[in-house]
Amino acid sequence: MAENTFGAGEAGENAFPDPQELSYEQARDELIETVKILELGQMSLDESLKYWERGEALAKRCEVLLDGASQRVEAAIETRSVNPEE
Q1: How far apart are CA 59 and CA 34, in angstroms?
Q2: In a domain, 11, yes or no
Q3: What is its EC number (predicted)?
Q4: Is 90 exceeded by the pLDDT of residue 11?
């Protein structure tokens, strides 16, 4: 190999950040890219499964964050209806 070669073209096990550390926007954007990659269908079955699993984890992260935001909005509305003068 040449001296300026940086990798073997394969992502390592820890190549992607843990979905639990991503903001909603980061997880959503990565999920969009993951879906695009999967739609190309140019990978082996093993690679496709890894991307599918990553996509599932990203979708779950988005769902958790959206649920949390929804609960915060509902709590704010409830607080506002209990104390309308604030």
Answers
A1: 11
A2: no
A3: 3.1.11.6
A4: no
Question: What is the number of domains present in the chain?
Answer: 1
Angle formed by the axes of helices 24-40 and 45-82, to 10°? 150
Q: What number of CA atoms fall less than 13 Å from residue 16's CA on the CB side?
A: 19
66 vs 5 pLDDT, higher one: 66
Which residue carries 């991307």 as its tokens? Answer: 51
7 confidence band (pLDDT: 50, 70, 90): very low
55, two tokens = 């996509």
Query: What is the pTM for the complete model shown?
Result: 0.74
Whole-number Å distance between alpha carbons of 21 and 78: 30
Q: Which domain holds residue 71?
A: 20-82
